[in-house]
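S.,

Sequence below, as promised.
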Amino acid sequence: MHDTGATFADKKTPPVLITLILVTSISVLTMNAFIPSLPALADDLGSSYAFMQIAVSGYLLMTAFMQLLIGPLSDRYGRRPVILISLVIFILASLGCIIAEDGETFMIFRMCQAAVASGMVLSRTIVRDLLEPNEAASMIGYMTAAMALVPMFGPMYGGAMEEALGWRATFWSFVVFGTAILWLCWIDLGETNKTKSSSFKEQIKAYPDLLRARRFWGYTLTAAFASGSFFALLGGGPFVGREIFGLSPAATGLYLGMIAFGYMSGNLITGRYASRMGINRTMMAGCLISTFGIGAGLLVNLFVVQHPLAVFGFCVFVGLGNGLTMPSATTGILSVRPGLAGSASGLGSAMMIGGGAGLSALAGALLSKESGAAPLLMLMVASAICSVVATFYVIRRAKTVGAT
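The prediction came back faster than expected:
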């Protein structure tokens, strides 16, 4: 498919694809596996659901902050040491969540878990270190298609673990998975940053140059608004499942996992066609699919029937659209200033996830038993429409000679 010169368990060569998939997957698993357990967490630790929802929105904000540091640190010191240290912090923080006896202590350690976001950011950066833009988009598509099984089964897994063994069992599994992936990265993750920057300070100074690049803003806003629909679902989905439709944690997890089926399908399409279609046209196709799909779900919910499938079923189109959009938008972010790929990945991801945190919190605030699921769907549609507008801007800018 793509020749990157990787040899398994050889620290002198780039990591093999499965290593990149797994180090990304642990980041995604940590984000969504415990979400069906939020009501139980609130009850067990004596906190309100609104406070425990910070474990989603606050975690996303902390992830955004971490990514502002992860990118420049990896450009300065390399991808390998940043990932290894981040995994150690994640394992220790997961143990802290297990021993927590109150909501405040749990939340402190939960925020520290955000260190694992380095895997999500730097796995894509490693691909961009090795391949040209259209090839990178294709490989990221295949990579994320494989790891999309995690958000598909993550909520189902977490819901089943909570019903069978309690919510702490989910965090024990984070410790086990984190330790296994730390060992895998230790033996296989060769350094791919061959042009390390001279100082961390110089990398931080590079941010204004990125912020002046209009296409960087276009790709970043496309990614932020396209994924915003997904993050809104993370924030409001558990409430809709339990309080509006009366679903169990396992059933809520099953419905939330439906979006990942579409995401995996979209990534497979991206892997197959992105190198031929180009990243901008692939992005636009994804944004339009997401917008029309969730728009149809909103209409069904308002005028036909209020049922879990009318909400979560149409979210498959959000997953499909994101599967087309995100690999291409990510590649665009990394390609505007190739010499600053790590910084671009960190800054772009921070903006994307920071916006996602805001939408996640807003979704939780808008919903009530009386409102039904409509406010959540409206918020998701609005975010998807904004992603279409941002992609139009990118395409228009790309037609300008010498666009930056």
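The chain has one domain: 17-190+199-398.

Coffee later?
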